[in-house]
């Protein structure tokens, strides 16, 4: 069914004016319930024993002493997660089960080996020390290039590249995208820049560690409360891993204390479920920060080779990339996303991008805000700025000259619908920040960025209450203020005040399946479904008014929260408000509701351009961010201050990745910085205010023109910061993070002329 | 295991509890007293999500033993609003979109209140350094700093507080 889209709608009454979020008061008073904030009568506490080795064969596990400790109620190991046909049919799920609990071999420092449930956390911790694991330590590899090299330690004997070949390998997948004649493109170029870049593995760094409470009844049905970006995913994965019927497991999403992609999979939920099943009691499992760093997903680290050429007039003729991404112990590094996004801001005549997905002895990577894109953009945006400098063109003018436009063919294949990259570049160029004079040791960097945005499976249920207020149930956990946006879109469509709509994240037993909150999809897809559900409810409301008035249904229309006769021929009746219709629902046909289910497409990509001014301390190597500007296309900003918040938060995560954040391994393959002291995310005193400008180029795929905004903002910062440092020092950083020791070494080893 | 009997004051109320020697004040607040407003983000004093006030000083409650609270006066996020009336900081955080996921918010509010009680007119730099021990991963701090500035202006009685 074609949707009635009117992305040029301008007369918004609620959308665009949202002030406060419905979850806000509970969050400022401490009442909001996060993953670890739930308790159940008779609850046990669980702890997980983790591998102290990067790579080792498990020869034996003896849990008898732990089981004998007073207060210990159960111990589980891989043996408690037996094979079942549904599981074995799904390779990804088999890997997730292996990641959740090691079987045969441990594949990284921190890999789960066993778990204990006990009367309190202290007894559980004590019990872990009594579990005896006999390991045969194996050679390990944590670096992507070393993992690809001949003779590298092999993680999975049965892994073959793209499922083909005879020899075991650590290269799980390769991908190639592109079009045009790449060799001819480079022949046309007057200037070519070719460089290799590396970016460290950054962790999502959500402040709330993973937490869950599982409760299995004697009849085999169970419940899980947990912090997750997708409780339907938790239900389905857990049920299949634990051999349960999906309908017997109900999952409720708690408030979520940050996710950024890192909570789009499971780590501890099946473990708590298995322990609860074994003990017949509720089991709470909360990760420590050390566990979060060692055993949940950071993003992939990367090694990226870029070659780009342009004419002396500034036309990019060819763009080539090789992206080596390691994604930890299992396949799934987003080298495909890296390859597709690398050149998505531009229109090179010829483009080719090759991606490698490589396994190493590190924790399995998880999605992190625009997964795969920031590290590719770091490399590409560095080269783009270098090309601009080579031909003496302003870096924004150079980008404008080559920018992807509405109707142009994207570098990854499809043709763009209406997009706003040019608008962001023009607004950035006109912004006062771009002309502020710089002092010594200061540099200005520009970078643009792209993210696809997702749609996906979405179900929404909207119910009109007896007083005319509205209860809206969505199935996508709110990680960025989406409940406020849903309230706004429902209120806009129904013509009622924002305050009259309450949105909840319904549990898995109350609503149809919803994909996880990822890909910046929620305000777009759940928003679209909310609008359509409201339209369906309006049809019911109009039908009820028709019944009351005794006129045909199509003689009634909905306006400003009331049913009114559609025209003079319909007869003269005073408007019936949603409140009046709701009060009579019992006599006119029963409860009034609207539902909508969709597999949404048409998400509409979002582009951004960032400008950063940085100052370098040549003595200490410290880089200070002086000012930062984000210009991003939001399509239509439903809640402008929350859109700004998404833009600012993403940019600061990117600044952290560029300047400080990375996983540091020692020669034994053990993570050396699994804590916030040594894995240093930006703190308040590191930063200036973050300037924002929202551009609105309506997305034709959404009734109100909305685009996702959450992820694009982390794509440009790595390249923007690197370009600022290059401008300030005359030395181009090719390794991120450009931490103080790295910058000092760089300035010492490779003094270059200023670009 | 021997328990300690502790008598302390929390948000003005006298509270008695028993705790193990190794339980932190944060464990006690959350697991024994049901006060889950303070959060455990790290357990090592690096993130500030568990910030409470003890005898007028902000502390990471994950670094204080439950037994150490004996005879002290503790203030937590649960005591910040007076009934339905939010503290100006809470209101400005809400109105200024200074929170997203909200996990760091209780700790930041408790820390910011302590700052404003000590220094009613802090500069942006003073706010940034005072809150440097409270990690927020969502906001980039911009709107948090502005909310503290606006709340401070209102509490000083300046009418132009946004």
TrEMBL record, chain A:
Alphabetical keyword list: Molybdenum, Oxidoreductase
InterPro entries with a match to the protein in the record: Ald_Oxase/Xan_DH_a/b (IPR000674), Ald_Oxase/Xan_DH_a/b_sf (IPR036856), Ald_Oxase/xanthine_DH-like (IPR016208), AldOxase/xan_DH_MoCoBD1 (IPR008274), AldOxase/xan_DH_MoCoBD2 (IPR046867), AldOxase/xan_DH_Mopterin-bd_sf (IPR037165)
Start and end residues of each Aldehyde oxidase/xanthine dehydrogenase a/b hammerhead domain: 29-139
GO molecular function ontology, one term from the record: iron ion binding
Gene3D superfamilies registered for this protein in UniProt: Aldehyde oxidase/xanthine dehydrogenase, a/b hammerhead, Aldehyde oxidase/xanthine dehydrogenase, molybdopterin binding domain
Pfam families to which the protein is assigned, alphabetical: Ald_Xan_dh_C, MoCoBD_1, MoCoBD_2
Keyword Oxidoreductase carried by entry: yes
Protein name: Xanthine dehydrogenase family protein molybdopterin-binding subunit
Organism, as annotated: Pacificispira spongiicola
From TrEMBL, chain B:
Record key words, sorted: 2Fe-2S, Iron, Iron-sulfur, Metal-binding, Oxidoreductase
Listed Pfam families: Fer2, Fer2_2
Gene3D superfamilies documented for this protein: 3.10.20.30, [2Fe-2S]-binding domain
The keyword Calcium is annotated on this UniProt entry: no
PROSITE patterns listed in its UniProt record: 2FE2S_FER_1 (PS00197), 2FE2S_FER_2 (PS51085)
SUPFAM superfamilies cross-referenced by the UniProt entry: 2Fe-2S ferredoxin-like, CO dehydrogenase ISP C-domain like
Classification via InterPro entries: 2Fe-2S-bd, 2Fe-2S-bd_dom_sf, 2Fe-2S_ferredoxin-like_sf, 2Fe-2S_ferredoxin-type, 2Fe2S_fd_BS, Beta-grasp_dom_sf, Diverse_Oxidoreductases
Keyword Cell membrane in record: no
Name of the molecule in the record: (2Fe-2S)-binding protein
Organism: Pacificispira spongiicola
Upper lineage: Bacteria, Pseudomonadati, Pseudomonadota, Alphaproteobacteria, Rhodospirillales
